[in-house]
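Example 3.2
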Amino acid sequence: MTLSVWLTFLMASLLVSLSPGAGAINTMNSGINNGIKSAFPTILGLQLGYGIQILSVAIGIGAILASSTTMFSFIKWMGVAYLVWLGVQKWRLSGSLGHINSRDSTKIKQFWQSAFVNLTNPKATVFLVALFPQFLSNNSTSSYTLQLFIMSGTLLAVDIIIMLCYAALASQLKQFINSTSRMKIMNRAFGSFFIISALMLAAYKKN
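Structure, written as C-alpha cells:
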C-alpha cells in the first residue's frame, strides 16, 4: 500500500468516524454522565464491536451478510430493538444527579453495551465490504494480509481518537447540568437520539 493510497484511506476513515451515529451518541452519553476518563470502557467496547465487524469482512463473512437479505434483516432489527431499548431506558431515568456514579454506570456494563451497539449495526459491515476492495491492490508489494492489517489498524485508531473527542466535547456540557430538571432533559434528549438512530437504521436498505 503506497503512502498516497493510505492517506486517501485515512481521509475516508475520518469521514466515517466523524459521521454521527449510534456509537457517537453512546460515547457522548457516557462522556456527559461520567466524564472523559470514564468514557474509556464505552470507547473500547465500540472498538471491540467494530473490530469484529472488520475481521468478519476480512475473512469473508461480511460479504455473506451483505448478500443475504435474511441475515442482514435479522441483525438490523436486533440493532433497532436494542437502540430503542436504550432510548426508553434513558427516558425513564429520574434525572437525579446522583445517578452519575451509580451501579447502573459500571464499566463492564458500559463496555458490553457499546460493543453490542456496533455489533448490531449491519450498515457498518456493508460499508466495509464496499470500502475495502477500493483500497486493496493485487499489484502492491505488500501482501493482502498486511494491507488488511494496516487498514484495520487505521480504522480503529481513527475511531478511538474521534470518539475521545466526542467524549471530551460532551464532558464539557456537564458543568451546565446543575439541577435534576436539566439532567432529566438531557437524559430524554439522549434517549431521543438513540430512538432516532434506531429509526434511521430501520429505514436503511441495502443497494
